[in-house]
Structure formats: structure tokens, C-alpha cells
Amino acid sequence: MENDKSISLRFKVFNSVFLVGICMSFSCSLVNFILGLGEVIILISFACGVITVVLYVI
């Protein structure tokens, strides 16, 4: 519990925004796949999700 108090609000908001962006990117690529849009569009949104995950982990 002491770690939760030491983490600033700015860091918590940053993590939340990053996680929402990751979920939005992968859900966008899934919807594009279901709708049968072009492969390029699906791969671009999926790649953005992967890049965001890599940046979040680093």
C-alpha cells in the first residue's frame, strides 16, 4: 500500500492513457479485420498497438 501513495497522480494518468490507447489500437485492428477492410489498414493499426506496447514496457 505504501507504493500506491508514492506514485504521483501524473504517473497514474499516464499509465491509464497508455492502456486505453493500447486497447483502442488492438480493438480497431480487430474491427477492421471483421469488416473486411484492407490488409494495410489492419496492419497499420496493429503495428501502432505493438509499438505502443513496446513503448509502455520500456
Characterization of the model:
With 58 residues, the chain is mostly helical. The radius of gyration is 15 Å and the shape is elongated. The chain has one domain. Helix content is 88%, strand content 0%.
Q: How would you describe this structure in keywords?
A:
58 residues, mainly alpha
Going by helix content, strand content and strand pairing, the class is: mainly alpha
How can the largest sheet be summarized? none
Order of helices and strands: HHH
Strand share of the residues? under 5%
Q: In the residues, how many domains can be counted?
A: 1
Q: Number of DSSP strands?
A: 0
- What is the averaged pLDDT score? 88
State the assembly state of the protein chains. single chain
Radius of gyration: 15 Å
Form type: elongated
> Helical proportion?
over 70%
Q: How widely separated are the two ends?
A: 24 Å
Q: Which stretches are poorly predicted, pLDDT < 50 over at least 5 residues?
A: none
The DSSP helix count reads 3
Short structural description:
The chain has 58 residues and is mostly helical.
